[in-house]
Specification:
Keywords: Kinase, Transferase. By secondary structure, this protein is of the alpha/beta class. The chain is built from eight helices and five strands; from the N terminus they run E-H-E-H-H-E-H-H-E-H-H-E-H. The longest helix has 25 residues, at 70-94. The chain is globular. It starts with 11 loop residues before the first strand and ends with a helix. The structure holds adenosine-5'-triphosphate and magnesium ion (MG).
Length: 215
């Protein structure tokens, strides 16, 4: 491992986004290992979850029996996100680390917004209310058609979100696409239909550029 790299001023906040089965979680160990090789300190978190509150809320979020509506989902997500930010993300960034979150706020706009139909202005209002002003420095949007994502996770026992229908994920994908078009500097679309090795090559190459520009 190259340990010669000084801490990144302000850290580097990387998020992984995309629908189910796109390849986000599979990329985590690859990105971690690459960062370590380059001499960066790394931490990995996830949403829903991340901080202690979000992790405690995660089974509640995924519980079918609780009859959660879209607004209750949103309130749970943002309570968890604020705690995730305060307990994990902000301290890691302050320590100059690369913080990788497996899903973050773009998923809220995609799933609760696109999927469930909550107006994006309503989500933005709650986002503003939490007082988190920093956006990810880079977001990888793993883009796959819903049928391919679903096929990849077919062997898994589907959770509450994974049981949504194809139209839900088509709408969610549409929101990721809109957000990528609106913020092309932050959101990098990765063609996640490619073989895993090519996806991972693309991630490493794009992250290397972003970290170099960030220094
Ligand atoms: N590009 C790819 N080619 C082939 N298989 C892939 C590819 N990307 C991921 N997979 C496989 O698809 C499955 C789902 O991938 P993974 O768990 O990384 O998706 P995810 O985006 O984290 O999904 P979820 O949102 O459900 O957590 C895994 O078995 C993984 O090995
Ligand atoms: Mg995953």
């Amino acid at each position: 491992m190259n340990t010669g790299m000084p801490p990144l001023a302000g850290g580097f906040f990387l998020t992984l986004e995309g629908i189910e089965g796109a390849g986000k979680s599979s990329a985590v160990p690859v990105l971690m290992e690459w960062c370590h090789q380059q001499g960066y300190a790394v931490e990995v978190t996830r949403e829903p979850g991340g901080g202690p509150l979000g992790e405690a809320l995660r089974p509640i979020f995924l519980d079918d029996r609780l009859q959660l509506g879209a607004d209750e989902e949103l309130l749970l997500l943002y309570a968890g996100r604020r705690n995730h930010w305060l307990t994990r993300i902000a301290p890691a960034l302050a320590a100059g680390k690369v913080l990788i979150s497996d899903r973050y706020e773009d998923s809220t706009y995609a799933y609760q917004g696109g999927g469930r139909g909550v107006p994006s202005a309503r989500i933005a209002e709650l986002a503003r209310w939490t007082g988190i002003t920093r956006q990810p420095d880079l977001t990888f949007w793993f883009d796959v058609p819903p049928e391919l994502g679903a096929a990849r996770i077919r062997a898994r026992h589907p959770d509450r979100m994974e049981r949504e229908d194809r139209e839900f994920f088509t709408r969610a994908r549409g929101v990721f696409a809109e957000r990528c078009a609106a913020e092309p500097q932050r959101i990098a679309r990765i063609d996640a239909t490619q073989p895993l090795a090519l996806v991972h090559d693309a991630l490493r190459a794009r992250l290397a550029v972003a970290l170099t520009c960030h220094r």
